Amino acid sequence: MSQLRLDPLTSRWVVISADRADRPQPFASRRPAQEDPEALCPFCPGNEEATPPALETYGPQGEWLVRVVPNLYPAFSGRESMSVTNIGPMFTQAPASGIHEVVVFSPGHDIGWADLTDPQAGLVMAAIRDRIEEHSTVAGIRYSQFIANSGREAGASLDHPHGQLMGMPFVPGELVDEQAGFDRFQGACLLCTTLEAEEEARHRIVAADERVVIVCPFWSGTPYEMLVLPRNHQPFVHRAQPADLASVGRGIRDVLGRLRRTVGDVAYNVVLHYSPFKASADFHWHIHLLPKVTTIAGFELGTGVFINVLPPEYAAAELRAAVANA
Question: Is there a domain that residue 77 lies in?
């Protein structure tokens, strides 16, 4: 029997419908990004001239372990102010000014987040933190979104593992919805309470240590969806403790490895959420891990309501068991 579950961050309903998983279709495997086999990878060592000069490099002198460069094809660029123009009664526009950068996770062309060493996973999170801190000082930037797309189904255009940071002159709607969710939850932090409740229930926890808990949340909208929750309450990721950032990086690495052992090398998205720079209301930074194992169809697109064919309790149990089968 199907069940409605409410996502308290956004007040959106999701549908848990395990019976629909029996339909004659497997979970989707990753397709590689479409690349010219003759072209040089712009993110591999030795090809640094294929990108604009690095904004930051991390690693010993003479070589890099993590590299941050401007995006050659930016979605947001320039320093023009956020001036909204109305063209007649129906059309409103503004310049897409801002910042668009690429974070290259490793020199290795095939070293994804699931393959990073402990120090490298922490270094990736440190680079993200540093760049967001820099963006917070730029006039007109209200929020900087970090994402990582792995696999063509998740939006990756290059196979070399990397993430993107987009500093924008507005607060995106998903963050506005989540801020509203925190505001509605009176008396305590929504995600601190979620963390405590999930630890008490236990059956949706995938991994945990003294600094981070990773769960398949009660309101999961898609199979194997995970929520990465730092234990320390902090609205802004660029003010998080270095040990928390390192633990989150390792935790993401570990659960992506479990995901690979459970369902194979599937595409996925990593999405970081934290409080917008100028916000004063309470928030708790966190990360969404969204594997692309099913297709979003007409019902989801038409209603905004997701139908999840794998209850999060089952997904978490499979992911926990994956370690024993490694």
Answer: no
Instruction: Assess contact for 56 and 67: CB atoms under 8 A.
Output: yes
Q: String of b and e for 309-324 (b: at least 16 CB within 10 Å)?
A: bbbbbbbbebbbebee
How many folded domains does the chain comprise? 1
User: Does the predicted model carry a pTM greater than 0.85?
Assistant: yes
d(CA 285, CA 240): 9
Taking 70 as the pLDDT cut, the residues of the chain under it are 1-3, 14-38, 324-326
Interatomic CA distance for residues 188 and 157, integer angstroms? 41
Contacts of residues 301-306 at CB distance under 8 Å and 24 or more positions apart, as own/partner, are 304/12, 305/12, 305/13, 305/14, 305/15, 306/14, 306/15, 306/221, 306/222
Domain of 171 in residue numbering reads as 3-71+97-322
Is 81 domain-assigned? Answer: no
DSSP 281: S
Residues 74 and 148: beta-carbon distance below 8 Å? no
Which burial class, exposed, middle or buried, applies to 69 when counting CB atoms under 10 A from its CB (0-12, 13-18, 19+)? buried
> Which pLDDT score is estimated for 218?
96
Q: How far apart are CA 66 and CA 81, in angstroms?
A: 31
Strand boundaries in the chain, DSSP class E: 3-7, 12-16, 56-58, 66-70, 85-87, 91-93, 99-104, 143-150, 162-168, 205-208, 212-215, 226-230, 268-273, 286-291, 306-308
Domain CATH code at residue 298: 3.30.428.10
Examine residue 125 and state whether it is found in any structural domain, yes or no.
Answer: yes
Per the rule left: phi > 0, alpha: psi between -120 and 50, beta: everything else, 215 is: beta
* Residue 79 falls inside a structural domain: no
Q: Pick from 269, 279, 287: which is nearest to 164 by CA?
A: 269
* pLDDT at residue 323, as a whole number: 77
Please check whether residue 124 is in contact with residue 235, taking contact to mean a CB–CB distance below 8 angstroms.
no
- What is the predicted pLDDT for the residue at 259? 97
pLDDT of residue 309: 92
